[in-house]
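queue> holo job accepted (iron/sulfur cluster)
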Amino acid sequence: MNIYITDGSPDGFFTAAFTACNDINCTVTSEQNFQIALNSQITEIKNDPVKSNRVRKKIAEYDPQALHDISILLLRGAGTKEMTALNYLRQIVKYKRPVRDMLAVPPIRIAMEERRKVTLEAHRFTGFLRFMESEGGIFYAPFSPDNDILELILPHFYRRFSNQPFVIHDVSRKKAALCNNGKSRIVPVDENAQVILHENEQCFQALWREYYQSVNIAQRPHEKQMKGYMPVRYWKFMPEKQQEKLFGHFRENDGLHPGK
Amino acid sequence: MLDAERLKILTESAKYDVSCSSSGSTRSNRKGGLGNASVGGICHSFTPDGRCVSLLKILMSNRCVYNCLYCPNRAEADVPRASASPEELCELVISFYKRNYIEGLFLSSAVDGSPDRTMEQMLETVIRLRKVYNFNGYIHLKGIPHADRLLMSRAAQYVDRMSYNVEFPSEHSLKLLAPQKSKESVLLPMRQLSIEKCAADSEKGKCRTRFLPAGQTTQMIVGASPEADGQILRLSEAMYRKFSLKRVYYSSYVPVVHHSLLPDTCTGLLREHRLYQADWLMRFYGFSAEEIAQENENLPVDLDPKCAWALKNMHLFPVEINKAPIEMLLRVPGIGTFGAYKILKARKFTNLCFEDLVKLRIVLKRARHFITCNGKFYGSENSVSVRNMLALQSKQEKYEQLSLFSEPQTADSVLTGQL
Ligand code: SF4
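queue> job finished
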């Protein structure tokens, strides 16, 4: 059995898919720690633009939207993401046409469910992301999503806050998007960056906590539903779910200042 | 700046209002402006009661000259009073919005001084937000009964949604429990707004004014007065039709005030839940109020209204899953709009068998008794035992089960926190 190891990038995946598509029992993964069967043969994939582009071109021929599906599948924060994408790709190659509606076929159904987990989380974070104002007037939002959705949510905040400079920091993937004045870029950021907060910030966080407590109808507790819609693992960066004020992880003068 | 004390008073008074949905409006951000409104609606947080926080829901003032019996803020009540100025409210909205705490503002008020004075303050707040702060987020404004018509029309040009509460399902109850309000003071503005919206929407060209892009809604308190569910649903149906309402919200009665004319107990959430289910049936499944319940009848407690309807109409079932038109698929208990849509898509490629439905994640617990797959029936023929089985399932699911009725609109129902 062949195991193809990629660098986790879409290019890596498509390069691997060039060979793996017809290698029925193989595994493609970018995970570092996985179980190796005794008889497995490991191949490290070196990104090859010629191969990856050929695969992309073929897929786009059968279904122009499929590349977008696959790009979303590859953002999934699970070790099986490459296999989900590969199995979906194989079905497109098999039927030579768009297959996303053929939900009675298991690999397609699984792919669509996995895809939805990514887009659902992105949708949730358009609501759950929390910004805090720094001394310099930049709005900073740390978060730690299950899937790699920074680029997916960026356009939403970009449209909404076009007149305010802001930073969205994926703490677990150690990267951040810096946006200011119609420009944005993604940079690697250390986990322990620090922000100096604006003097009013704590006051607004306190008002928000006050509001959150006042709108709750205490006679009708339904914690289970709350946790279902707003999983506990997201609470870390939400002021209404924290007793203490939140400190930023981001230092103003470490060169990440958007626009500088 | 608004202090914590007043914020508390002004939000605690506003929280029983259920219509907090922020969906249905698209307002794009203008250059240099702050914010936009998102079509699907966005939940920013959930409170321990399981409801979604989307808008900053707040009163301008809780000083009231009216005396509605059920209301904690009525003139006679001895409660702490507070009010906020338009500027204070604007500042709070903007700072919450910039931190992504909220989707926008839901502004309501007690009748402070006079209806006109109150409405003027509210109007000033929304104009200030739009003009001074360039705010393009969502605004829902509650109309004050008896306020000047022109104030209302002006406000409608700035906000996304307006609502007048009908409060009670009959004129009699309204008179009894909210003596200073009248049927006309609520229904006339609703009619007027729907006419003006219709006119504004038919205007063509770029410079046409935006008029209530998210339409109108209303709210009824259920269980404080004796009207039956059948009557409530008929009223909703009429309002959906006449005023093109976007939604009717049902809020089960919570006694905050003790009075001989009012019940002392909370109306069960189950009743409210059944009403929302019936409302869904009218809005998305093509049912009429007539089909769902008799005028003097309440919805069944042990069955959801769709199951109840199907059991009364067993002669229409079973339907063949590979052939039935969408309208009929939608009437099968257990098949929601999303499920029907999945079936419609999947059956284009292959003749679906029972196992295929399982793979499509169609909930078959109920549906199996009402369908055939390629002519084969998998349910029970005995209608009494079907009824008991369905009732049992319905009991287990209670009102926590969301998926049956709400799948495609989950976002919406989540926003109201009611289903
Ligand atoms: S008008 Fe009636 S319901 Fe509204 S605040 Fe005054 S007393 Fe309460």
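queue> The longest helix of chain B spans residues 183-202.
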